[in-house]
Amino acid sequence: MAQTFLTIHEAALLSSKSVQTIRRAIKGKKIKARKSKTPQGYNYMVDRQSLISIYNLKEEQIAKNQENTQVKDETKNETAKQQKKLAKNFVTSDDLNIFKDTMQKLIDQHEKDKENLFRLIKTFQDRMVVLENQVKMLEAPKKKWFRFWR
What we know:
- By secondary structure, this protein is mainly alpha-helical.
- 69% of the residues lie in helices and 11% in strands.
- It has two domains: 5-88, Multidrug-efflux Transporter Regulator, Chain: A, Domain 2 (Orthogonal Bundle), CATH 1.10.1660; 94-138.
- The protein has helices at 8-15, 19-27, 48-54, 59-90, 93-139; strands at 5-7, 33-38, 41-47.
- A hairpin with a 2-residue loop joins strand 2 and strand 3 (41-47).
């Protein structure tokens, strides 16, 4: 009889246990598992027969768990389809055009604000130079008119 291996997630769904419980059972060597190295760490594949024997699963339970899993997957798929449908309904070309126009206005306003800022900085620098020159003139020693030879 060929061994069938399941991922940890599939084993958890099949046994109605959490993924963490399955990991602990593998670590405690209660369940047979294969380990393969991946760039992110190790990937474990659980032996189906050892899973069934350790948790005393019967065929009815396995079928029920698989059925529940299929129902959950179908529900998830249906929900995802509905969300995509709603998303398509909410975003229209008019919305995109309005967004584009708004962004262009914001960019233009930003350019104007940037130009005004640079103009203010230039004016400030010019006035600082004038003030520095005036301070230098005030601090310069005053020569008396009759002391021209020194």
